[in-house]
């Protein structure tokens, strides 16, 4: 579709009040799913972040990398499983997770930011003790034992000074979701939880979670059943009914915690839509599901 000059001008005019409103604010973006696989979507996400930075908004990227981890584990002939949306992580798996997330995926994202004209810096939660963590055990479901997830971490504290320094100096921080324990051990932490806690620690105006669906659907087989707004008070019932299930559970849990800790707005959006971040930040309609603290 080719836009006329007038249509292009109208888009810029619509964006202007949002640019003014969010100037100087921080937007934490959880980057994962298909947006990390498709080359077109990769460039779209990174271009969006660079544009935000250029107009005075501070994007902070927290990335996943589950597909790359699965590929490496498969090459090594190692099985894996998920429990309630979280990867069970033994010592060998933890080594693979850290190698892929902090060593490969993180640096590829940084390289793309730099290639497209931004200034990216990659870190993990171990740098400057950014993410202090302890071992996470899932509480028992009815009639079951508690689940030992291995080297899966629970965030104890986020120390955001290193992020503040980078974003204030014009850099786009890119964070791999690895936490550090009290004895220096590494912990695999769900990137959604990391994004939520980082957003809270930074006092972010927005937390945006990119996913592979339109948002939260009342009927997972019907894209037109999108719930444009979900209240925190509705979340337990939506989980009980199975409307929120699987990998969407940690996403919604991180949304709820971020809102309770002071993050301004939280959005779950479709990362398969090119420039979905700009559509969410700079247009009247937005995309996906907004979670509100009611």
What labels would you give this structure?
294 residues; alpha/beta; Carbamate kinase; two-stranded antiparallel ribbon; 24% strand; globular
Description of the molecule:
It is a single chain. The chain is of the alpha/beta class and 294 residues long. It has one domain (23-292): Acetylglutamate kinase-like (Carbamate kinase, 3-Layer(aba) Sandwich). The chain contains 9 helices and 14 strands. It has helices at 5-22, 39-54, 66-75, 91-115, 161-168, 191-202, 235-240, 248-260, 276-282, and strands spanning 26-31, 58-63, 82-83, 86-87, 120-124, 131-138, 147-158, 172-176, 178-180, 186-188, 206-211, 229-231, 265-270, 289-292. The strands form 4 sheets. Strands 5-8-2-1-11-13-14-12 form an 8-stranded mixed sheet, sandwiched between helices. It has a two-stranded antiparallel ribbon with strand order 3-4. The longest helix has 25 residues, at 91-115.
């Amino acid at each position: 579709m080719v836009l006329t000059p007038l249509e292009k001008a109208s888009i810029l005019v619509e964006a202007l009040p949002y640019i003014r409103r969010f100037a100087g604010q921080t937007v934490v973006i959880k980057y994962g799913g298909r947006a990390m696989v498709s080359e077109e979507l990769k460039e779209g996400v990174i271009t969006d972040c660079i544009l935000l930075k250029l107009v005075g908004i501070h994007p902070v990227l927290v990335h996943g990398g589950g597909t790359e981890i699965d590929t490496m584990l498969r090459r090594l002939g190692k099985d894996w499983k998920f429990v309630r949306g979280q990867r069970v992580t033994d010592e060998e798996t933890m080594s693979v997770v850290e190698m892929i997330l902090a060593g490969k995926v993180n640096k590829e994202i940084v390289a793309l930011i730099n290639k497209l004209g931004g200034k990216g810096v990659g870190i993990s939660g171990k740098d400057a003790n950014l993410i202090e963590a302890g071992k996470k055990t899932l509480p028992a479901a009815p009639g079951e034992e508690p689940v030992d997830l291995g080297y899966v971490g629970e965030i104890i504290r986020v120390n955001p000074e290193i992020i503040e320094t980078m974003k204030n100096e014009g850099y786009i921080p890119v964070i791999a979701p690895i936490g550090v324990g009290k004895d220096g051990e590494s912990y695999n932490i769900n990137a959604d939880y990391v994004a939520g806690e980082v957003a809270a620690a930074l006092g972010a105006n927005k937390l945006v979670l990119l996913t592979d669906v339109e948002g939260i659907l009342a009927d997972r087989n019907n894209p037109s059943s999108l719930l444009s707004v979900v209240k925190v008070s509705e979340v337990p019932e939506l989980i009980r009914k199975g409307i929120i299930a699987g990998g969407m559970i940690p996403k919604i849990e991180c949304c709820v915690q971020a809102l309770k800790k002071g993050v301004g707005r939280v959005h779950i959006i479709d990362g398969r839509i090119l420039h979905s971040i700009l559509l969410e930040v700079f247009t009247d309609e937005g995309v996906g599901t907004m979670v509100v603290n009611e």
